[in-house]
Amino acid sequence: MNTPIDFYFDFSSPYSYIASEWIEALAARHGRTVEWKAVMLGAVFQAAELKSPVSHPIKREYSLHDFERSARFAGVPFAIPSKFPVATQNASRVFWFLHADDPARAVAWARLCLRAYFTRGVDLGDTTALAALATEAGLEAGAAERVWTDPHWKDRLRQANDAAIAAGVFGAPFFVLDGEPFWGNDRRPQIERWLESGPF
To answer: Which residue from 20, 127, 159, 186 has the highest number of Cβ atoms inside 10 Å of its Cβ?
Structure first.
């Protein structure tokens, strides 16, 4: 039986957003499913002793340009949010809350948040905006707030970060396919070839 593709993503990562728009269809064409795993790049970067590319002046302008170019190349709507990056731990905690009961609903939440942030500029770090998205997703706003302030779901996200670090994740998007790691939205051709013909 074909194993799922692990898809590690961060809600504030433009490349994660772009990858989220193609990974499911690509996997399905080859009889695979996708295991979505929300992580915090801050925790991952810290473990790997890395910094975000946009935190380096020499990389920031290139990165902002490449986000837009990569989205155009993928045919994905995209607009750099006016506030970027933002804190997204609350969105991630809601993801893991939903995932515990219904992974498909968690994926729908992830898609909603990623699209809201990277096409409409909805600030996922703003609790009022996030509560409105929760309502849009069919989750009562007060219930969502209880989730992201609950120590249990805070710990669940920490566990997800620790598991990702243990799996060798150091950026997002990060894919693990048949035990093989692929980092970055631009690894799509290699992932596709692997799915078509196996290891190379």
So the answer is: 20
Work out whether strand 174-177 and strand 5-9 pair parallel, antiparallel, or are unpaired. Answer: antiparallel
Whichever domain contains 90, its CATH number is 3.40.30.10
Each residue of 125-149: pLDDT tens digit? 999 999 999 999 999 989 999 999 9
CA-based Rg of the chain, rounded to a whole angstrom? 16
Strand partners, 8: 37, 174
Residue 52 in this model has a pLDDT that exceeds 70: no
**What does the block give as tokens for 62?**
């290139």
- Is the pTM higher than 0.85? yes
Going 110 to 116 to 119 to 121, the CA torsion angle's sign is: negative
Cβ within 8 Å of residue 50, ≥6 positions away = 44, 170, 171
Strand pairing class (34-38; 5-9): parallel
Please give the residue range of the domain that contains residue 63: 5-197
CA distance 134 to 175: 27
Q: How many domains does the chain have?
A: 1
